[in-house]
Amino acid sequence: MKTAKLDCQVYTLDHRLLLPAGKELTSEALDELIAANKDTSYQALYFLEYGTVYQDILPLIQKPPYHVIFDELKRTLALNLMKKISFIPPILESLDYFKENDFYTYRHSLVVFAMSTIMARDLLEKSEDWIMEIMAGTIHDLGKTCVPLQILKKSDPLTRTDRSILEHHALAGFVLLSYFLQDPRSFAAQVAKEHHERRDGSGYPLGISLRDSMVEIIAVCDVYDALLSPRPYRPTPYDNRTALEEIIEMAQGGKLSLEVVQTLVSHNRKDRPHFRECKVSTEKRGTPPADSLYGVIVKRDMEKEITCPNCHGSWIKRKTYKKEDVECISYECRSCGKEFDEDYLLYKKMDEY
Ligand SMILES: [Fe+2]
Ligand SMILES: [Fe+2]
Predict the structure, then answer these.
(1) CA of 351 to the centre of ligand 2 (A)
(2) Which residues surround ligand 2, an ion (CB under 5 A)?
(3) Predicted TM-score of the model (pTM)
């Protein structure tokens, strides 16, 4: 079993450091973390009754693109299930934080919750087994409270440093939920950690093979909503058809569960076929948004062509250093000796393209 290691520190919204960067998440480290919070007791509150959650969630599932999936019957079913879910105050405060500072993550959390609820209803047999698990859809991205807002809202391509800080949200969410729920084995903590893993082991943070049915449902809903939403790096979202085509391709490439994707497609069909009889087409007719910078990282091979912005000399020395506990790269000019941050240089180079 691989042991995860933190790339960045994990802290609470009130700036308490829970674990430093570089910490290995061994069972001893997690036990110690939870022991520090074992005497705290929390009073859970019903989520749909909290603040404006109900008023916020309703229009999201009544309007395009989700109105096709959530017809009146599905809406009622989903809301009835969601009514049973409650969260403890630190989790609700994190959702308040997103609502105020990163509305996309707040909206995304609500939609993934609603979507995963109706998909779980189709795919998982005994509702008592998963009724508490659907809560995890809402808080899968909780660890984004540990990602600086300038990275969450960045509209330019990400540098590799940005990417590793962003990907930190999976383990940060795992640590935060283990701490607040006082159990690293809680399902919500597991979902936070694994929702970016893929069936074929190509995901992160550990590159393990995704297998749990409910985590797979949340992973599919997560990708689906991410494609359908306007993002800073992609002002125009995918249309529904193209988003489904992308997800079908991911399932056929072995990354996502084909059964879950089949269920998603069946919810999108007007004739509502049973998900087990729903055929998914491999034909691609949609066009992804032209201005999407999703997944674009400033390119490594630009490195070879970099010249010093100060004296136009060429680079020989590549150095690594720590900035806010993240491993970063800088370059030193052989000619004038000046040092420049990798992100600055690569962006400068990119502007020339
Ligand atoms: Fe995520
Ligand atoms: Fe997400």
Answers:
(1) 30
(2) 141, 222
(3) 0.82
pLDDT score recorded for residue 349:
56
H runs (alpha helix) in 182-274: 187-194, 213-228, 240-252, 258-268
CA 168 to ligand 2 centroid distance, Å: 13
| 310 Cα–ligand 1 center, Å | 39
The Cα–Cα gap between 80 and 107 comes to 19
Q: Please give the distance, rounded to the nearest whole angstrom, from the Cα atom of residue 341 to the centre of ligand 2.
A: 30
| Residue 278 alpha carbon to ligand 1 centre in Å | 28
- pLDDT averaged per 10 residues, the chain (length 353): 90 96 96 95 95 95 90 92 93 96 94 93 79 87 96 83 92 98 94 96 94 93 92 81 92 94 89 70 67 53 67 72 66 81 63 49
C-alpha of residue 170 to centroid of ligand 1, in Å: 6
pLDDT of residue 20: 96
What interhelical angle do 103-123 and 53-62 show, nearest 10?
A: 70
User: How remote is the CA of residue 332 from the centroid of ligand 1, in Å?
Assistant: 35
